[in-house]
Amino acid sequence: MKIGELSRETGVAVRLLRYYEDQGLLTSHRSEGGHRHYGPEALATVERIRTLLAAGLPTKIIRELMPCFVGDGTQLQACVLDHLKTQYAELDSRIADLTQARTALGHILEASTRALADA
Predict the structure, then answer these.
(1) Who's near 23: CB < 8 A, 6+ residues apart?
(2) Does the pLDDT value for residue 72 go beyond 90?
(3) Residue 38 in contact with residue 28, Cβ under 8 Å?
(4) Over the stretch 107-118, which tens digit does the pLDDT of each residue have?
(5) Which of 11, 21, 41, 62 gives the lowest tally of CB atoms within 10 Å of its CB?
């Protein structure tokens, strides 16, 4: 299928599909005219990429995980579970940092609002 067809089928912009290809996440074959053509597996590949991006994984990590899928779904081989657990722990850490920043900002807003009301 051509890139426009893949875009329509997946709901992913052509620009993003090109980006995925540039990042080594998606492969195509070029016609003599230079047009990209994708195999039938491209639909599942794009779905996997989108799922991993939604999970907060960067494209560098996704590229490493792509060969590790089991079957047609989003299940990965056991050999990458430690890697996923590390990513999960990093997300927890970032969430904790953001929660602290949110709390601090809330205190600043609250104090500023009180000061303005008292003025």
Answers:
(1) 59, 62, 63
(2) no
(3) yes
(4) 999 999 998 888
(5) 11
Question: The whole model's pTM is what?
Answer: 0.78
* CB-based burial label for 20 (10 Å; 0-12, 13-18, 19+): buried
Domains and CATH numbers, the chain: 3-118 (1.10.1660.10)
Do 6 and 43 form a contact (C-beta atoms < 8 A)? yes
Q: Distance between CA 52 and CA 29 in Å, rounded?
A: 24
Distances in whole angstroms, Cα of residue 109 to Cα of each of 5, 98, 99, 113, 118: 49, 16, 15, 6, 14
Residues, the chain: 119
H or E stretch at 30: strand 29-30
